[in-house]
Write a structure and sequence with these properties.
The protein contains seven helices and ten strands. By secondary structure, it is an alpha/beta fold. The protein folds into two domains: 86 residues, ATPase, nucleotide binding domain (Nucleotidyltransferase, domain 5, 2-Layer Sandwich); 146 residues, Nucleotidyltransferase, domain 5 (2-Layer Sandwich), CATH 3.30.420. The two termini are 15 Å apart.
Length: 260
């Protein structure tokens, strides 16, 4: 079995692959102050909860957008699993043609998503990742990584709206409802956050599609992932494929490419 770990700003997503199949996933809160033994104990409990044993794992791979946690997490995994741990970063083989001004700045999460999308979906492709930040990635007709866009994430925007104003409350982040014109404060905030984000996605898809289709002459595949994605996609008017395991799949593909 192979253990996959994606460290985000808010959550750490864990996955376990057996015979090329994702056996289970789990989420824990990202806490930069925790020590390696604390993470190792928590992961051991998660493995036990899902009927897995640390001795079953042949390897592990992690990606992170929180640099201080990388050495802590690597030591935690090595201590728990007693196996080699790969880290997505400089020196790892991705197979991506990265056309950024400085390829070294590309986040590990975007690398994983792009690797998985290139393998799983027709190109060109637009990838939305709705996490702490909302990111858009553009892959051209050959799968080359062209670049993208970065927005404040849904929950980050909601918290900023509440903390930066005197009369707007903190509201439940389980965002539901489809009221366009809110008749009270909470419904108005949900309209702005949920439907506003959906409208942004629809509009950016149109703009990205103009560029990518003109370049390749092909239609564009649109994929979305991330913890908040399901709450938004049901309000989008463009066709978007929801793939909750896109980053986990990318990590597993990178492990297989680099394990030797």
């Amino acid at each position: 079995m192979i253990f996959t770990v994606d460290i985000g700003n808010t959550n750490i997503v864990l996955g376990a692959y057996e015979s090329d199949r994702l056996r289970f996933t789990s989420r824990v809160a990202t806490e930069a102050s925790r020590m390696e033994d604390q993470y190792a104990i928590e992961f051991a409990n998660i493995l036990q909860l899902n009927g897995a044993n640390p001795a079953q794992f042949d390897g592990a791979i992690l990606s992170s957008v929180v640099p201080p946690l990388v050495p802590v997490m690597k030591k935690a995994l090595e201590k728990l699993l007693r196996c080699k741990v790969l880290v997505v970063g400089p020196g790892i083989k991705t197979g991506l043609n990265i056309r950024l001004d400085d390829p070294g700045i590309l986040g590990a999460d975007l690398v994983c998503a792009a690797v998985a999308a290139m393998k799983k979906y027709p190109m060109p492709c637009i990838i939305f990742d709705l996490g702490t930040a909302t990111t858009i990635t553009a892959l051209d007709g050959t799968g080359a990584f062209l670049g993208g866009s970065i927005f404040p994430g849904v929950k980050l925007s909601l918290n900023a709206l509440s903390s930066g104003t005197a009369q707007l409350p903190y509201i439940n982040t389980e965002l539901t409802g489809n009221t366009v014109i809110g008749t009270n404060t909470i419904d108005s905030m949900k309209s702005g956050i949920v439907l506003g984000t959906a409208a942004m996605m629809d509009g950016m898809i149109d703009r990205y599609r103009e560029v990518l289709s003109a370049d390749s002459g092909k239609d564009v595949t649109v994929v979305a992932t991330g913890g908040i994605a399901q709450s938004i996609l049901c309000h989008c008017r463009r066709e978007i494929i929801y793939d909750p395991d896109l980053l986990m799949d990318g990590l597993y593909m990178l492990y297989k490419k680099n394990a030797d």
